[in-house]
Amino acid sequence: MTETPTSPMLSRVHTSAPDTDSAIDRTIPEFPAATPIDEDNYFRLHKPPPYLSQISRDVAEFINFHHKQNRKVALVTSGGTTVPLENNTVRFIDNFSAGTRGATSAEYFLENSYAVIFLHREFSLLPYSRHYSHTTNCFLDYLAESPDGTKVEVDDKFQKKMLVVLKKYRYAKDQNLLLMVPFTTVHQYLFTLKLIAQEMSVIGYDAVFFLAAAVSDFFLPSSRIPQHKIQSKEVGGKLVVDLEPVPKFLRRLVDSWAPIAMIVSFKLETDDSILIDKARAALKRYNHQLVIGNLLQTRKKQVVFVTPEGERWVKLTPPQIKNRIDIESILVPEIISMHGDWIQSRKEIGL
């Protein structure tokens, strides 16, 4: 982790931390997996993003480039999706995700010789720049004036660590290892995810999907979204929103969009007594390879790997916590090892 400079600001206060004592009860059964009819209806009734053709070209070129080099490709999704309440959007529903896990994990996939398509919430954390863009300190705290006062330099005490990050970033950029693909709304995310999955079909089991994005559970159908900003006088000072459940497209990803790729999903809960059961249920419902369960309160220190064979906890040790080791530096290499086993198993059965 990058050392942060001292600052007179209240750097120990984190306003994004939720009140865990008031966490909601999540024992209610989840919506069923989406069917082919659900898929057809959703993508037929909602307009694709106008820039989708450009993304298609960029993704195809990126995948073909690495396919020729026999390099594995990870699609890492990151950050939260929004649900607009107006077409010319002023108001929208969001979630707390800043994209920390996705951005961090992308770095470790890159360090382990994977190419990465980073499907991320626009303006959320990005690989490498995350070390400096999401702290309680201003980026300028890392800088200093040159002795003659004519130049800007990195403060001496941050030179070594910033140089390490810069070299890794430059290498990924120069070797064309990282493709950034943004989204904001849940519709943009789903259209783009489907597109990328279909483009990645050319590399088959050399693809791994690391689905760390926080995807909205509900949305407002296009047919019910007002064109302009909702006026308070028009709703009598009270706004009542009737949302629909977002289809659970993970099963479509597994069965149709990327049927022989390795797929990793996440299950976030606040109640440790239901976490593993929820992860097992998701694994059975969607029939993929791995669910990584984590608790909101401890997600940066421990996770649980749930596979058809059982579950296993991955935890940082006290010294690792003290030294600010990223748990992603442990879980990503383990996923890569599992991906290797998955590829071998596909080859053995002739896929």
From TrEMBL:
Where are the residues of the annotated region Disordered?
Answer: 1-23
- DNA/pantothenate metabolism flavoprotein C-terminal domain: residues covered: 204-300
- Any Pfam family hit: DFP
GO BP term, example: coenzyme A biosynthetic process
- GO MF annotations, alphabetized: phosphopantothenate--cysteine ligase activity
Give the superkingdom in one word.
Eukaryota
Which stretches are tagged as biased composition: Polar residues? 1-19
Member of which family?
Belongs to the PPC synthetase family.
Q: What is the name listed in the Swiss-Prot or TrEMBL entry for this protein?
A: DNA/pantothenate metabolism flavoprotein C-terminal domain-containing protein
Q: Which organism is it from?
A: Eeniella nana (Yeast)
